[in-house]
Design goal:
By secondary structure, the chain is mainly alpha-helical. It folds into 2 domains: 118 residues, no CATH class; 108 residues, no CATH class. It is 54% helix and 7% strand. The chain is built from 10 helices and 5 strands; from the N terminus they run H-H-E-H-H-H-E-H-H-H-H-H-E-E-E. A hairpin with a 6-residue loop joins strand 4 and strand 5. Helix 2 packs antiparallel against helix 3, helix 4 crosses helix 5 and helix 8 crosses helix 9.
Length: 239
């Protein structure tokens, strides 16, 4: 697919370069102030009706897409669009922004954003989240993306391992910055302290299972697996 069609450029009035420059400007503006993300939110949604997780999601989408579009502007056609998306993810990971890992996710965001330069926020069916997830909206988004990226083998055990080895680990390491740490015991103490701040004694399989249910994953006993209904689609998952 050529760049004009790929980025929804109106070939009668603009080039692919013009279109990309415009998209980048819109996305950069969305992260200018605390509430400017609303410029790329579609519909009658207001700042007061959006959850912190939804706000963080929009900001991150804007950051990742702007980076991918910049790389595309500089590198296409020598690089294809998928490679540009993956490079954007790698660039942000290098500065400790690890919101997503899969280029397909970024391509899906782009497909949603390009036509109207907005994202649609789904309202209704709100669930009260535990204090830990409310305080760390990025954990919610990363869990959802990880689940969708691993639908063919998703299980509670797999999500539990990911939470401890990736998400919780990143949060604890961030808290330990600037502190002297002699051994693993300091890490474990800080992890326990983090969990206790939100009424958790530990983060076991039962808690992981409850969180998965709250985030839209559903257990299917007959199929021994899960589906995720975040977008009202029942994608079957087998262990």
């Amino acid at each position: 697919m050529d760049a004009v069609h790929l980025f929804n450029a109106n070939k009668d009035i603009e080039t692919a370069v013009d279109r990309l420059s415009d998209l980048i400007a819109v996305l950069d503006n969305a992260n200018e102030t605390a509430t400017s993300y609303m410029t790329i939110v579609e519909g009658n949604v207001t700042n007061d009706t959006m959850s912190e997780n939804q706000k963080e999601s929009i900001r991150m989408k804007a950051r990742y897409l702007a980076q991918a579009y910049r790389i595309a502007l500089d590198s296409m056609p020598n690089k294809n669009w998928h490679d540009c998306c993956q490079e954007a993810i790698d660039v942000l990971a290098a500065v400790h922004i690890r919101y997503i890992k899969n280029a397909r996710v970024l391509r899906r965001w782009s497909e949603e954003f390009r036509p109207r330069k907005t994202f649609c926020i789904k309202t209704g069916d709100k669930r009260d989240l535990p204090a830990f997830l409310q305080a760390h909206p990025i954990v919610v988004t990363v869990m959802k993306e990880y689940g969708r990226e691993n639908l063919s083998e998703l299980s509670v055990e797999m999500m539990h391992t990911y939470l401890h080895n990736s998400i919780i680990k990143s949060l604890v390491i961030e808290r330990l910055k600037g502190k002297e740490t002699g051994d693993d015991s300091e890490y474990e103490k800080e992890k326990l302290k983090l969990l206790q701040e939100y009424g958790l004694k530990c983060l076991g399989h039962t808690t992981t299972y409850r969180w998965m249910l709250l985030l839209g994953f559903r257990h299917k006993p007959r199929r021994k697996g899960y589906y995720v209904d975040g977008h009202k689609k029942k994608a079957t998952v087998q262990y």
